[in-house]
Specification:
This protein is 37% helix and 12% strand. By secondary structure, it is of the alpha+beta class. It has a five-stranded antiparallel beta sheet, covered by helices on one side. Strands 7-6-8-9 form a four-stranded antiparallel beta sheet. The chain has a two-stranded antiparallel sheet with strand order 10-11. β2 and β3 form a beta hairpin. This is HNH endonuclease.
Length: 356
């Protein structure tokens, strides 16, 4: 994303003012000549007003080239923060010209905003902090054709300037080219609704409409590993690997809803048994995790949903062999994630040796 900001007045007119992001906040470049940054005053007053409304703390420093080597504290410009922005502007001009014969020079300024992140600062400065999330009905107006057009635009070298490069996920095309999911969906949203899309219009992530529609359109959403996208697997290779897989009776009954597997689950989930085991396990280990693969679901999925990934496995007496009235002890149970639990039952059905 460019460091340059596009400032629009409250009535939508673009200002002729050079404002850019800085590691400490914002830079407002000086005005000179008849055309360079002619809306300097309007831009500064607009920025101060928007920072006030967003309750962002800021300091203003002279940042002209001759003083850039001077300590920042020695070039801070004082003004009455309680006065109207018009009066503040006049105070700042007097302060920036102090000790100079000039009284009307409007110089380069650094507006420092400690504690405010760049995304939030850009949003406030450009007047986009009032953008609200679009309802699901609007988001679902994005069709595969809109997404395909957005993909093609990005592949042809176009961009979605309102959206930053992806940090966590990639949307892979059929040829494995990684694209930023929010850029793709943002462009598709503009095409579908005829609006200028912004990040606050929608959320991206698993379970969100954005990812759902991107995948329905044929893109493959993958998490990045150290900034690198996971390669898309070959459909031919997957088909070949599955060709010789024969489902066990247990897997068939799971798919078909056979009462046998339902009975297994009802027995295994005896009221209070799983809850008591989880509590004992946490008391002993300080956290809940899979005893086979060591997955920590709370760390991965959050405290409220993570515990649902851990299931109880009877590793001493298997449920299928239990007699009526069987009593299960806590040490008979193992905490396993859903994947390891399914694989374990698969091994048991195939007569393979199971160890922990």
């Amino acid at each position: 994303m460019s460091d340059r900001l596009i400032l629009l007045s409250n009535d939508g007119a673009q200002l002729n003012a050079n404002v850019e992001m800085h590691e400490r906040g914002l830079i407002l470049h000086s005005r000179s000549g008849t055309d360079r940054n002619r809306d300097y005053r309007a831009a500064l007053e607009l920025l101060l007003s928007r920072l006030d409304q967003a309750q962002i703390v800021y300091r203003v420093y002279l940042d002209s080239r001759p003083v850039q080597g001077v300590n920042l504290s020695d070039r801070e410009l004082s003004f009455d923060r309680m006065s109207p922005v018009g009066a503040r502007f006049d105070e700042l001009v007097r302060a920036m010209n102090k000790g100079s014969s000039s009284r009307g020079a409007w110089r380069r300024l650094l507006i420092e905003t400690p504690g405010t992140g760049p995304a939030r600062l850009r949003e406030v400065a450009e007047g986009k902090s009032n953008i609200i999330r679009l309802p699901a009905t609007d988001l679902r107006k994005v069709l595969p054709s809109h997404i395909h057009k957005a993909v093609q635009k990005l592949l042809d070298g176009g961009d979605a300037p309102n959206f930053a490069p992806s940090r966590d996920y990639d949307a892979l095309t059929s040829t494995g080219i990684p694209l930023a999911p929010k850029k793709v969906f943002g462009l598709a949203l503009e095409e579908a609704l005829g609006i200028e899309a912004h990040p606050r219009h929608f959320s991206a992530g698993w379970g969100q409409i954005c990812f759902e529609l991107l995948e329905e359109a044929g893109l493959w959403i993958v998490p990045k590993k150290e900034g690198i996208a996971r390669p898309k697997p070959s459909h031919v290779e997957i088909t070949a690997e599955l060709a010789d897989l024969v489902p066990t009776d247990e897997e068939r009954s799971w798919i078909e809803g056979n009462p046998k597997i339902a009975s297994h689950l009802r027995r295994e989930r005896h009221p209070g048994l799983a809850k008591e085991k989880r509590a004992q396990f946490i008391a002993e280990h300080g956290r809940l995790f899979c005893e086979d693969c060591k997955l920590d679901p709370v760390k991965l999925y959050g405290e409220e949903a993570g515990s649902a990934c851990i299931e109880m496995h009877h590793h001493i007496t298997h449920v299928a062999k239990m007699q009526a009235g069987h009593r299960t002890r806590m040490e008979d149970l193992k905490c396993l994630c859903a994947n390891c639990h399914r694989v374990l039952h698969r091994k048991l059905a195939l007569g393979l040796t199971v160890t922990f």
